[in-house]
Amino acid sequence: MFVRPKKHLGQHFLIDKNISEKIADQFTGHNGCFRVVEVGPGTGALTNPLMKRGDLELFLMEVDTESIDFLIKAYPTYTKQILQEDFLRADLGAIMGEEPFSVVGNFPYNISSQILFKCLDYRHQIPEIMGMFQKEVAVRIAEAPGSKDYGIISVLLQTFYTINYCFTVDEQAFNPPPKVKSGVIRCLRNERTSLPCSEKLFIRVVKTAFNQRRKTMRNSLKSLTNGKELPSQFSGQRPERLSVDEFIELTQFIEAECLS
Questions:
Q1: Which of 48, 97, 118, 187 could connect to 129 by a Cys-Cys bridge, CB 3.0–4.6 Å?
Q2: Could you tell me if 209 and 235 are in contact, meaning their C-beta atoms sit under 8 angstroms apart?
Q3: What is the CATH number of domain 199-258?
Q4: pTM for the complete prediction?
Q5: How many Å separate Cα 61 from the centre of its chain?
Q6: pLDDT of 83-99, one tens digit each?
Q7: Over the chain, what is the mean pLDDT?
């Protein structure tokens, strides 16, 4: 059965078996979690090596009906674990219950960042995220402070996950080939269970700062400081220079001194 890649779904099917196996091998089962949701399995290029590992309880979440039909025929013993669901709209708690699960996939580039933000919403249940992204996005997620690639998604993901950039994948590994290279990253849940400040305010501080990243923090955060002067270690800095811990400290200051 032939499945036609659909442009509106951002489908670029992985056809290089060596790359598929390499991605599957990168999954660690962090914190002892071997219950896995594969997002957008398509024609099962990554599904097959994941199944061959033999240590995973695998669920396949796919929105494309043609791919669903293909997967049911290819993996008849997995029928109950093949879910026709839009990951972004799915109630993961209702589907997966309260037990931990990890997320893997060759993620559609057009929604890859949204997939990560959805995982953040369920971070207490998701110890590991392993996937393929447009290389530019993968680099940005994994980048450390001080780089022009370090931004909103870097800070928010690194607040709760340790990010490793694993390897780069060339365009020819896909059908149809994308116009850009891809990058595989692994996100492992860190030990931070909560923030010592308002999480909503923390996100607002990060987004406000990076939305005006050419400005210093003194100027970009004026809308949040209520006329108060920021501590000197933050005031003249640009957002790409601040670590996650420094953004947390800055949020604590704003919460205590500017919004009271």
A1: 187
A2: no
A3: 1.10.8.100
A4: 0.94
A5: 16
A6: 999 999 999 999 999 99
A7: 94
DSSP state, 228? P
Between helices 199-210 and 244-253, what is the axis angle to 10°?
110
Question: Residue 196 class from Cβ within 10 Å (0-12 exposed, 13-18 middle, 19+ buried)?
Answer: exposed
Which tokens is 14 given?
A: 């992985």
Position 259 scores a pLDDT of 82
> Minimal CA–CA distance to 221: which of 193, 251, 242?
251
Q: Which fold has domain 7-189?
A: Rossmann fold (3.40.50)
Pairing of β 13-14 and β 182-189: unpaired
Amino acid at 255: E
pLDDT of residue 9: 75
Start-end ranges of CATH 3.40.50.150 in the chain?
A: 7-189
- CA-CA distances (angstroms) from residue 219 to 82, 84, 128, 212? 50, 47, 37, 9
Low-confidence ranges of the chain (pLDDT < 70): 1-2, 5, 260
CATH 1.10.8.100 maps onto the chain at 199-258
Long-range contacts of 138-145 (CB under 8 A, 24+ apart): 138/165, 138/182, 138/183, 138/184, 138/185, 139/165, 139/183, 141/116, 141/185, 141/187, 142/185, 145/240, 145/241, 145/242, 145/243
**Cα–Cα distance measured from residue 109 to residue 68, given in angstroms and rounded to the nearest whole number:** 20
DSSP 221: T
For residues 204 and 250, what is the distance between their CA atoms, to the nearest angstrom? 12
